[in-house]
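Help! Submission page says 'invalid entity' but I think these are all valid:
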Amino acid sequence: MTGTSPRRGGSTLAEVAKAAGVSKMTASRVLRDASGFSSETRDRVLREVERLGYVPNRLAAAFGSDQTSTLVGVCVPRLTSSLFGSVLDSIDHTLSKFGYQTMIGAHEQSPQAEESWLRAILAWRPAGVILSGRKHTPGTVEILRAQSIPVVEIWNLNTSPLDVSVGFNHFDCGYEMGRFMLGRGHSNIAYVGAESNAAGMGEVRYQGFENALADAGVECVAKEVLVDRPGFYAGFYGTETVLSRNAEIDSIYYHDDTMAVGGLFYCKSKGMRIPDDIAIAGWGGMEVASVLPERLTTTSVTTQALGKSAAEALVARIREEPVEDVLVASTRLVPGNTV
Amino acid sequence: MTGTSPRRGGSTLAEVAKAAGVSKMTASRVLRDASGFSSETRDRVLREVERLGYVPNRLAAAFGSDQTSTLVGVCVPRLTSSLFGSVLDSIDHTLSKFGYQTMIGAHEQSPQAEESWLRAILAWRPAGVILSGRKHTPGTVEILRAQSIPVVEIWNLNTSPLDVSVGFNHFDCGYEMGRFMLGRGHSNIAYVGAESNAAGMGEVRYQGFENALADAGVECVAKEVLVDRPGFYAGFYGTETVLSRNAEIDSIYYHDDTMAVGGLFYCKSKGMRIPDDIAIAGWGGMEVASVLPERLTTTSVTTQALGKSAAEALVARIREEPVEDVLVASTRLVPGNTV
DNA sequence: ATGAAAGCGCTAACAC
DNA sequence: GTGTTAGCGCTTTCAT
């Protein structure tokens, strides 16, 4: 910082107060809309605020009083997914309505990255944090407990959360789709997924799926989990890979709709008929499916509701209001004509 | 706050210092990895930090010293777009490498929403902010000037930025595509876009496009800008709308690839051949196009590079290093077989 | 309805 | 290599 430049942030409360001919306390009360001032005083203070372009210093306020800010840390696997994007959008929208500011992190499914992000975030004394998934490092768990800070874990349903959990029941999603595909007469069933990292956010869905097959005495004939970000292209070449290894496959369950759409176009490019030659099922209920000639069989999920519930639960915890420990965001299998 | 609960954040520097048998200053130096302590002292301090689970209070540090935090505010139109998601991902990744924390906002193209977000963010004395688009309220401009804070405007190229601009040359993108479509012999050319709001982030592209047509003495026969979020479905029904009004249309330029893909499937569903009956062009070079049977004619854009450049430019400005005022992220027309 | 004083946890500046 | 002092801008507490 150069010595000549004026203090960043312009004027202070003291300057506003002085200009308005009142004490700092009175000015402070006016700005926080507390009580204890006449409407005449109020007008005088607000006029000076306007004139001086006063911007409150929340750093000082949060530090000086209760040691807690209105900052909230939110960590998601990635920002490029329409599903996580929707959740984050809903969280941010809801939090800002309640007067909180959202600090983000993207851990791309690495618990270590999550932990180092968290350490940096906690130094700002956030009012709470929202994490994705159930896998956290021991360090993460310990530091959260030590800070006794409200935590909401999202995405995966977690019946023994650190604090509060708001998620989808991925196991049931997988199980239900497994049963559905079996019910349509498919028996050479494969799974194609993608995980950038070890945390395995898609794994639970596969487990539910596999269980459904096992309960019917059927084995999943192929499981291909690419080390990649889930997406259209991963679905395309994952399908190529799995079909090249096993020509008997008559149906594929995908990590999500983007991968399913990629797989669908791979199959069509090879002249396969859907669902006669090969059946395809996705997950997520993404918008892209709405324009395809085929109606994709998928599980539609309520990402907006998940985000809103998570943000509301966090705010309730911050305010020490009663909150359900475990909330489930709804999902629904939507039969199309691709299975 | 209940009086019984311990101070959030656990121990303080003073406690660490006392436990280590040194002064606060020495402990502070160790933690900031400054010089001025023996390695023996360092070990003793770090041991106590570990033992006490000390988490530094950046609120106090930022407030007490230079009045500036390592927080950075980043505002984008929305978080559900793969393009903006990619930019944000790249920004966050780059900023965190430099030790900054990202606070987000989503203004969905409303300058007013941007301004109120900005006011809340500036109260945290961020080291800098990144805004999207060129349209800002007078209040936004004034407050930024008054705070004399580093600002990077992204997305739209802006030759007279508030501070620094890193963007795509949308006008050229549109112009180039206009010329390309004309070159392929199309003459009944329409445009289909979508804007949720008045700020009109897609408008410049249209202007370039229209100019290309005008320069060739051709008029754009239809312009349909839906009041909606750009997306697959908006492309689908926007195409339906525009074609129902004008049956002569032989080619359509879309706001982006999602809309183009939506339009493509609408046209195919009506039995039209592409590009013979109707030509289709998008923008963005999105992944979805990689799996279609058609190679979509589009403009591929470097969202990761844009985000990285923007973050780096902001950091340079914060550090008072020399920075180019205007940076252009590259775009490239990629001819496919849909035009 | 308003004001005065104290202090939050940290670091810059200056001693030693 | 280490310690002391002062102060950042605000809010809390307690007077008036």
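Support: the input was valid. A stray whitespace character was the problem, and the output above is from the cleaned input. Residues 13-56 of chain A form a domain with the 434 Repressor (Amino-terminal Domain) fold (CATH 1.10.260.40).
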